[in-house]
Amino acid sequence: MSNAGYAQERETTEGKVFTVTGGDWDSIVSGVDPLHDERIVVNMGPQHPSTHGVLRLVLEMEGETVTEARLVVGYLHTGIEKNMEYRTWTQGSTFVTRMDYLAPIFNETAYSLAVEKLLGIEVTERANTIRVLMMELNRISSHLVWLATTGMELGALSMMIYGFREREFILDIFEMITGLRMNMAYVRPGGVAQDVPDIAIAKIREFLDFMPKRIKEYEDLLSGQPIWTARTKGVAVLDVTGCVALGVTGPVLRSSGLAWDLRKTMPYCGYETYDFDVPTQPEGDVFARYLVRIAEMRESLKIVEQAMDRLKPGPIMVEDRKIAWPAQLALGNDGLGNSLEHVAHIMGQSMESLIHHFKLVTEGFRVPAGQVYVPIEGPRGELGAHVISDGGTRPFRVHMREPSFVNLQAIPAMAEGGLLADVIAGGASLDPVMGGCDR
């Protein structure tokens, strides 16, 4: 048997090394007779404006009908999980935030909850409330990007402008709170990096006031529009049986009729105390996924409003000074840094505090040996953090169960037998983010 289609391997001083080549393309096209076979094989991507990132689809087609679809991922591989093994537990938050770059707060929260479970600690009430507040704002901003880009790909160009307009407002809120618009490393083991300033509270209130009207405008623009409905209704259908068999979660699963939402079924961060519904649709097509995400934005607004009412004064980081890092952060005129009082204390008044601060920042805290898996409900589905500690100051292993990666395997089931144009609609309806897929 020939090994031409398999990755070649060799032993080295570092262990077994595999050499992967592009042989997949040769094996696909080897049986095509260009003179007598009507089958054609085309590459869609990895540089394609409608694949929501650097995703490559190898499509076998007869005319405009897709007969076979194969996915090729890995073009955005960053090695985040491996890099975390060489950083402290707190620094890990700076890495995971860059995976799904449209939902950084969720990446940070899943990882931090896993580390806190290993440590056996509970964060403060205010820190939990801030986490919920930030996650739901992030859920809305992520769904807005989906709505904007999918609208553009299916012909509703104005939706792109409106979706990013509202997302910009949310990113302004994030900048006020964290100092950054994306990849904030704001949620950290033990709590959050700094408190929510009053100016951000006022900005969120303003957002809560106008956003329901904007969502209604999106519906007025799209829901009854003939082209939109023709491109989405009955397209890329995946029923609940297919979703469960493929491990598909999130809005795609709920649009097939199953009300599975980890905020309800396996609550975390106090979600069981919030009043909100889990939107579902029975059809399992692109239009149903659109309706579910629109409804989820409304439910997120309800949760944000409740979180705002719960923001009572209190600490935002655990009191244990062996874990809380960095300590005493403040937002000043010069940006983000340690408060002047804290700097004065460790530099001029207490040598012990300076030594502790130095060791905590450079070496980090120790986490008891063990392994945990903590899942949360991200904008795309179940985002899980599998974290292993050997008792040291750095993770032994971190692996994320990323919904974009898992959900993408549904594309062949949705695309094969349909038209090429429906590959765009179906793939977009999964809302994949390749930074999370290829982490």
From TrEMBL:
It is a peripheral membrane protein. The chain crosses the membrane at residues 144-164. It is found in: Cell membrane. Its EC number is 7.1.1.-. Residues 154-439 form the NADH-quinone oxidoreductase subunit D domain. Keywords: Cell membrane, Membrane, NAD, Quinone, Translocase, Transmembrane, Transmembrane helix, Transport. It catalyses: a quinone + NADH + 5 H(+)(in) = a quinol + NAD(+) + 4 H(+)(out). InterPro entries: NADH_Q_OxRdtase_suD, NADH_UbQ_OxRdtase_49kDa_CS, NDH1_su_D/H, NiFe-Hase_large. It comes from the Bacteria. It holds the Pfam family Complex1_49kDa. The keyword Flavoprotein does not apply. NDH-1 is composed of 14 different subunits. Subunits NuoB, C, D, E, F, and G constitute the peripheral sector of the complex. Belongs to the complex I 49 kDa subunit family. NDH-1 shuttles electrons from NADH, via FMN and iron-sulfur (Fe-S) centers, to quinones in the respiratory chain. The immediate electron acceptor for the enzyme in this species is believed to be a menaquinone. Couples the redox reaction to proton translocation (for every two electrons transferred, four hydrogen ions are translocated across the cytoplasmic membrane), and thus conserves the redox energy in a proton gradient. This is NADH-quinone oxidoreductase subunit D.
